[in-house]
Specification:
It is a single chain. The protein is mainly beta and 508 residues long. The protein folds into 3 domains: 116 residues, Immunoglobulin-like, CATH 2.60.40; 80 residues, Immunoglobulins (Immunoglobulin-like), CATH 2.60.40.10; 271 residues, 6 Propeller (Neuraminidase). The protein is 3% helix and 48% strand. The strands form 11 sheets. The protein has a 7-stranded antiparallel β-sheet with strand order 35-36-37-38-39-40-41, with no helix packed on it. Strand 42 and strand 43 form a beta hairpin. It is elongated, with a radius of gyration of 39 Å.
């Protein structure tokens, strides 16, 4: 076909196609439409006034729609407790949005088919959306806004508390935030508080544990700073009792390697679980009838932590109250207990229990105070320290030589515990269930206060005799105090629902 005829044929075909199938004169059949005129893609800081958001609505055929209501709804912050007042972007009927904040607004289209709302960026950094709908025409669209953090307004430490073993290192950092806690990109520096438990490398914010104790460190950014606590812990493994959970457990001081030793353990005087000199076997006491009238412990449990069968000494002993136990390296048990059915020795006394469970009376403890941990037996069984004469407060604290029966007044106090070397005594100084801690030598000529920390009844010593550990009267935590200088550190143990309340600790 000649080129001129081909062009003419093509034009005629286009005209024919465009004229078929439509009775609309003057153009194609446009449907309703929604178009963003102004305000798309804004990026600015929190609280900034953005340009108004303007949209245009066209009705069927492409003419401006001057009769429709346009709704503007802002995306709210996830899980916000106040969704109407905590939007990612605020919209208002008339710009600028100076008074009041709204998560939704609406406007009717004008003669040009346009609707307008004011926009103010919200308090939360991030990308947020405003959804635009025209319900009458079934139209919808959205516009995004990028909210940036505001000016620096503070510093927040990333962790509130860090526990380190001696010699361990970690990085302690903070973050710079604006007035709404949005995180900025600047880095913080780290400065130490007074104390010498840790050293700090300012260039890397690395903290190194140098000495047992607690030290505050401060992430900083110019004049802004926050504080975080670093606790340096001695190494060791603890034997602890939970009155609430009724369990005796082994757990590392740093909270690792938790292991339940015995369950269903409770008595009014506590479990008073202790290691023997081998640090392998454990003795503890239990009430066979914890729901009875007084809940006094009347049975002894001996457990070998290596997995050997345990030894249960129950009703055959005839005890109706057990205050404390001590097992020597050869397996002999010494017990401060009451045996009311024994006509010859019905009151609190020291007894020996041999491997065949035979019982021997050793010494009567005059006027002993039946408190939780009111007495303790030396590691050889040759001496007993006990609180007596409850008419005075605190009671008198005596050391008895078992062989001679002689006693020596040490101080006023209760809840005594022998050091592993039997050369010092730790005890409390009050009688209302809690008190500050003291340490004295065995004849009472040297007495040393361990500071103002208050403890509940029940102490333990580190195997080397350098530290005393007890249950803090302030909450679900244990306090470790260094005997030589009073340096102390708090330890606590997390549980799925909070913290374990462990007490009456012993240490290996």
């Amino acid at each position: 076909m000649p080129r001129s005829l081909h062009v003419a044929f093509s034009i005629s075909l286009l005209v024919l196609i465009n004229s078929c199938g439509s009775d609309h004169v003057g153009g194609p059949p446009f449907g309703p439409a929604l178009r963003i005129v102004l305000g798309a893609g804004v990026t600015d800081t929190v609280d900034a006034h953005a340009v108004p958001l303007v949209v245009e609505v066209r009705e069927q055929g492409g003419k401006p729609d001057s009769r429709s209501l346009v709704r503007f709804e802002s995306q709210t912050v996830t899980n916000s407790p106040n969704p109407l007042f905590d939007a990612g972007v605020f919209v208002c009927p008339a710009p600028p949005c100076a008074a009041g904040f709204f998560a939704a607004s609406s406007d009717s289209t004008d003669a040009q088919g346009r609707a307008t709302v004011g926009v103010r960026l919200g308090h939360k950094a991030g990308k947020w959306y405003v959804r635009i709908t025209v319900p009458e025409l079934g139209l919808a669209d959205s516009v995004s806004y990028t909210v940036l953090p505001g000016a620096p307004a503070g510093v927040r430490a990333l962790t509130a508390d860090t526990a380190l073993d001696l010699g361990e290192k970690t990085t302690v950092q903070g973050r710079v935030v604006d007035r709404y806690e949005n995180v900025r990109t600047e880095s913080t520096t780290l400065a130490p508080g007074p104390a010498a438990a840790v050293t700090i490398d300012p260039a890397t914010s690395t903290v190194t544990a140098r000495d047992v104790g607690t030290q505050w460190v401060f992430p900083r950014f110019f004049d802004f700073y926050d504080s975080t606590r670093v606790r340096v812990l001695p190494s060791g493994r603890l034997l602890v009792w939970s009155a609430l959970e009724k369990v005796v457990r082994l757990i590392d001081i740093n909270g690792r390697n938790e292991r339940t030793i015995v369950s269903n353990v409770w008595s009014a005087l506590g479990a008073n679980a202790q290691f023997d000199p081998t640090r392998r076997r454990i003795t503890l006491q239990n009430a066979s009838d914890p729901g009875g009238t007084n809940g006094n412990s009347d049975e002894i449990i001996v457990v070998d932590t290596t997995g050997a069968p345990r030894r249960d000494l129950g009703s055959a002993l005839g005890f109706d109250g057990i205050m404390t136990t001590r097992q020597t390296a050869d397996g002999t048990l010494f017990v401060v207990a009451r045996r009311s059915s024994d006509a010859s020795h019905p009151d609190w006394s020291l007894w020996r229990i041999d491997a065949d469970n035979s019982i021997t009376f050793l010494a009567y403890l005059p006027d002993v105070a039946p408190y939780n941990g009111g007495a303790d037996i030396s590691h050889t069984g040759s001496k007993v320290v006990f609180a007596a004469n409850t008419a005075t407060f605190p009671p008198d604290l005596y050391v008895m030589d078992v062989a001679s029966g002689s006693t020596k007044l040490i101080d006023k106090g209760f809840s005594p515990r022998w050091s592993p070397q039997d050369d010092w005594l730790a005890y409390l100084t009050a009688i209302d269930g809690t008190g500050t801690a003291m340490v004295a030598n065995t004849d009472g000529t040297i007495r040393i206060s361990l500071g103002s920390e208050t403890f509940s009844q029940g102490f333990g010593w580190s195997p080397d005799g350098k530290y005393v550990i007890g249950h803090s009267a302030e909450g679900n935590e244990l306090q470790i105090v260094r005997f030589a200088d009073g340096a102390h550190v708090t330890i606590f143990f997390r549980s799925p629902t909070g913290f374990h309340d462990y007490s009456q600790p012993d240490w290996r």
